[in-house]
């Protein structure tokens, strides 16, 4: 059995400092170390994908499967399913936006220096051609991700490719990176 828990000791919650709460998932296991431990095992990439969608349930609507994760790069695929179609039979634009935000967010989380946090700030997208078949989202940072005492914008480039390797969608998602406040 694979254990991702470091410590399940109960501790005071941050809201009232009296009751106890289990550690947040981010404290239990960082996304990159979880990927590194699971992806080497049979069905590990599937379990990782399920864990991400459990933590952020809306992404489950596109049924993503992560295929690669390392600092500075994240790749995930979605398969052409009827539930993702628009009225003209291609993959819906917002499903592509979900794939872009998912890969950009997981890449940012896996690349984040200690003591930093992130949140999406804006998204600019281009729909280049009809999206059909299996689609691969690839997210990479446009600039180096560094630790900072002040917040800064991190542009993340996302390309979505079809099975033939043609780019069907491009996005630039701006992430706001800032130091984690001291408690």
Essential attributes:
32% strand, disordered N terminus, 8 strands, Thiol Ester Dehydrase, Chain A, alpha+beta, six-stranded antiparallel β-sheet, 4 helices, two-stranded antiparallel sheet, 183 residues
Can you tell me about this structure?
- The chain is built from four helices and eight strands.
- It has helices at residues 25-28, 31-38, 44-55, 93-111, and strands spanning 11-12, 20-21, 65-70, 73-78, 116-127, 135-141, 152-161, 167-179.
- Helix 2 (31-38) runs antiparallel to helix 3.
- It has a single domain, classed as Roll (Thiol Ester Dehydrase, Chain A), CATH 3.10.129.10.
- The model is unreliable at 1-29 (pLDDT under 50).
- The protein is 23% helix and 32% strand.
- The protein has 183 residues and is of the alpha+beta class.
- A hairpin with a 7-residue loop joins strand 1 (11-12) and strand 2 (20-21).
- It is globular.
- The strands form two sheets. It has a six-stranded antiparallel beta sheet. A two-stranded antiparallel ribbon has the order 1-2.
How is this fold's topology laid out?
Elements: E1 11-12, E2 20-21, H1 25-28, H2 31-38, H3 44-55, E3 65-70, E4 73-78, H4 93-111, E5 116-127, E6 135-141, E7 152-161, E8 167-179
Antiparallel strand pairs: 1-2, 3-4, 4-6, 5-8, 6-7, 7-8
